[in-house]
Amino acid sequence: MHVLVTGAAGFIGFFLSQRLLDAGHTVVGIDNLNDYYDVRLKQDRLALLHAYPAFRSVTLDIADTEGMEKLFATERFTHVVNLAAQAGVRYSLQNPLAYVQSNLVGFGNILEGCRHNGVEHLVFASSSSVYGLNTTQPFSPHREANHPVSLYAATKRSNELMAHSYSHLYSIPCTGLRFFTVYGPWGRPDMALHLFTTAIVQGKPIKVFNEGRMRRDFTYIDDIVEGVMRLLPLPPAPTPKWDAAHPDPATSAAPWRIYNIGNNNAIELNVFIKTLEDALGMTAKKDLLPMQPGDVEATYADIDDLAALTDFAPRTPLAKGIQEFVAWYRNYYKI
Prior knowledge:
Elements: E1 2-6, H1 11-22, E2 26-31, H2 39-49, E3 55-59, H3 65-75, E4 79-82, H4 91-94, H5 96-116, E5 121-127, H6 151-170, E6 174-179, E7 182-183, H7 192-201, E8 205-209, E9 215-216, E10 219-220, H8 221-231, E11 256-261, E12 267-268, H9 269-280, E13 285-289, H10 304-310, H11 318-332
Parallel strand pairs: 1-2, 1-4, 2-3, 4-5, 5-6, 6-11, 7-10, 8-13
Antiparallel strand pairs: 9-12
Helix pairs in contact: 1-2, 1-8, 3-5, 5-6, 7-9, 9-11
C-alpha cells in the first residue's frame, strides 16, 4: 500500500505510521505542526519516523485546498487514513472556528482528493464523543448518534455524514472509526493521563471533574493501531438488502461502515487515578470539580462488529498501559 497518513506527527498518526512502515508499506505523512500543544513532541515523533527510508513527511494543513489537490495528484495514494483534526472537547468551547476549518473544511479536501484520484479505501477517525446524550450502554454504532454535546463531537459526526455522501455518490469505500479515550506513550499533553502525571510529579493538584465519578473506556494506543491495521486492507462493500425503511446507522447501501474501537470496559476516573498513583509510587492531590460543559458521564464501546470482521478485540489491561506510559514519561522528560 502507498498510504497517506494525515496528522502523522500526532499521537495516533505516529504509531500507525510506524506500524505501516514496519509492515513494508510506503507512507507519506502530513501535519501542519500547529502549536495546540508542544511542537517539540511532534517533531520528536517525526524524527523517529524519518529513520525509515519509506517515509516522507510534508508540512501541510489539510484545510489548504490547493496544497491537498497537488499532493493527491502527485502521489496517487492507494489508501488514506485521516487522523488530522483539531482535537479536544473543552478547547472547542474556546476556539470553535479552528474545528470548523480543520475538521470540516480539511476533511472536505480529503474527500475530494479520494474522489478524483482513485483511492481504494479511506479510513477516518471519528470519536466516541459523537454518542453525546445517548445513555444506552454499551454504545453501539447501530444506534443513532445525533445529539452531540460539543462542537468537537458535532464535527466528528459531520465527518461520518460527509463520508457517507461521497461514498454514496462516488462509490468511495469509507470506514469511520469511533475511538474511545486513547492513551499510552507519546500521548498528547492535553489529555488526562499526561496532565495528571505532570501535576503529580510536580506536587501540584490534579483537576478531577465530576469528582472522579465519570467512567471512560480507556483504550491503549497499540490496540487502536492494531484495529486500524486490520481494517485498512478491508474496504467495505454495500450492505446486501440494506433496508432504507429501517436504516441501520452503522451500515449502508453505499460502501461505508462505522466501527467502534474501544477496550469494551468502562473504568471510573477515580480507579484510573489510583492506577496511575500506583505506577508512579506517588499520591495525587485532588481538586474535585463539577462536570464540565461538553463532557459526558460515561463511555463504553460495543466492539462486536470489529471483533466479528477482524477477529481482534482490544485487550491491554489498564495497569499495563499506564505502566508503559509512566516508563516513557520518565525517560522522555528525564524524571
